[in-house]
Amino acid sequence: MHLPIRKRSSFFDCRLSSPIEAAESSRICDDVSGWATALQLIALSARQNTHSAHKSARRLAGINASHLSDYLVDEVLDNVDLATRHFLLKSAILRSMNDALITRVTGEENGQMRLEEIERQGLFLQRMDDTGEWFCYHPLFGNFLHQRCQWELAAELPEIHRAAAESWMAQGFPSEAIHHALAAGDALMLRDILLNHAWSLFNHSELSLLEESLKALPWDSLLENPQLVLLQAWLMQSQHRYGEVNTLLARAEHEIKDIREGTMHAEFNALRAQVAINDGNPDEAERLAKLALEELPPGWFYSRIVATSVLGEVLHCKGELTRSLALMQQTEQMARQHDVWHYALWSLIQQSEILFAQGFLQTAWETQEKAFQLINEQHLEQLPMHEFLVRIRAQLLWAWARLDEAEASARSGIEVLSSYQPQQQLQCLAMLIQCSLARGDLDNARSQLNRLENLLGNGKYHSDWISNANKVRVIYWQMTGDKAAAANWLRHTAKPEFANNHFLQGQWRNIARAQILLGEFEPAEIVLEELNENARSLRLMSDLNRNLLLLNQLYWQAGRKSDAQRVLLDALKLANRTGFISHFVIEGEAMAQQLRQLIQLNTLPELEQHRAQRILREINQHHRHKFAHFDENFVERLLNHPEVPELIRTSPLTQREWQVLGLIYSGYSNEQIAGELEVAATTIKTHIRNLYQKLGVAHRQAAVQHAQKLLKMMGYGV
């Protein structure tokens, strides 16, 4: 009998003196797949000890191993005839089974009839499909049988596994056949399966299985079959083990005769080209990719896909985005045609990055959607590349100020990489810090930065990764005014020779931000003007948008207010294309002051006006400048100021009305003020009507201007 999920939480509560946590009881139920008899045995065993419920729960896993095994031997295995016993033990090596498999593995003449008979006897066999063709054992019973098979049929096991492998191959299931070839310890069978099916399995992301298989083959067997050496190298590449790839290929070339000539060498070069571009060496990557394409026959589609993709990446690095996009679209088409799904995914990710750099964020989003669909359809979730996709989705969400979604996406990227070295998580961690910074949550950002800086000090990273990590560090120093950290970093950081792609633009922007923080306005302006020239030339519109915002901060801090307003207007106009919000928000109060002025002038076009109001709301929400100028201390000093207007002195606002005025000044709507102060919208309307009357103003814009005059009178720069 199978225990329904809804009854699982109460099962142990009714049978144990001290209840266990719901999560623990659910886990135990899952361990036995809800088998009620097994759960009864576990509960009986648990009652025999005097430990706490927590300790009892911890012991249950051990209890079911011993007690259930004894139960199944006594009540099931010893109560069937010898032929049935052997059938159960032999068939237990199969995770799923049908007529052909049973006939081959057990020797039974009519496998389907035997399976149905076992099912009728209640021997824990269950159907897997509506047709009744496929069966499997209850997981708990299957595990028990598999263990007994290893004890009772040890001498026969290799032959049984070979029979299973042959049957699986005959039915077109090479991955299942590999499991049995490995279990049989049959290296020749394993080699033959890999030679015929390994690349198909690789393209369907069966990476762990392939790695285990190749490790089981002797090196001499790989040397006799260079395609398997190439496969092993590609596995290393897919797991970011770049250094090992060239070592393996060099060893193979040294030991395999005449390998340096012909098609195999061209395939090696295509892989080396991929490693070179990953290692930040685009010139070498371009040379090797072109060499590979010259030497590869037309039918060698996999390596041709690789080389084409690498040339697209090279153009990306050179800032030739239109040509790069075309090559990546060609790569996607070729990869889909030949079912090379991980390169189809890679090309979509690259297309998204290019479109983002060009400022077409909505199109980048749609390309990412295609990539997510491909992952779901082809089950590519285990690829490290999946992390890349969720990370660039997080970047896009962050740009649009969808911070909760951006954070969730970055965390899912960390989850994808949970089985890899912690250093692989650097980029997603930087994204989490970026979310904290956009929220103005500096305490959380500092905590995460400690971990990021520890990772930076304990790994070797691509320059793009370092630049992304440095970005959040420099923004944090700007927000906290940490000039010492910025100055120290500026002395030691890399200063690239060029800025002709969005990766290098990012590092130079880091440098300019640090220079602005240190008051080094002249060199920062030179950097930013050159960045803008390159960005305009290469149509790096997202970088141009970012550069304009940094230039705005430079002009603002240098007292060049008209220049600051000019580039801010340009940035707002460009944001109609990029959709940027958070890039404005992280500039904090300086940005808020400028946006208030622009909104008060009431001269912005409709789209820019709407965006400015949205940005201001985000700054107010996350950076907590709401009541800064209208708290009780400020009001007391204001009322005692010799120049305070007589109307305010004779008819002072209540503290709540001052708060409402502060929120009006900060750009809040009536509904937002009501939400912030947790009162009804009608109450807010009453407060606004009263404060308008006391201030002698007739509308919101006049109230904002009045508040601004009061702030200036009190010496605040607005």
From TrEMBL:
One MF term in the entry's GO annotations: DNA binding
Coiled-coil residue spans: none
Residue ranges occupied by any HTH luxR-type domain in the UniProt entry: 646-711
Annotated GO biological process: regulation of DNA-templated transcription
Superkingdom of origin: Bacteria
Keyword Phosphoprotein tagged: no
Segments traversing the membrane: none
Keyword Transmembrane helix: no
Keywords: Activator, ATP-binding, Carbohydrate metabolism, DNA-binding, Nucleotide-binding, Transcription, Transcription regulation
One Pfam family matching this protein: GerE
NCBIfam families (alphabetical): PRK04841.1 (NF003420)
Record's protein name: Regulatory protein
Organism annotation: Escherichia coli
Name of the gene encoding the protein in the UniProt record: malT_2
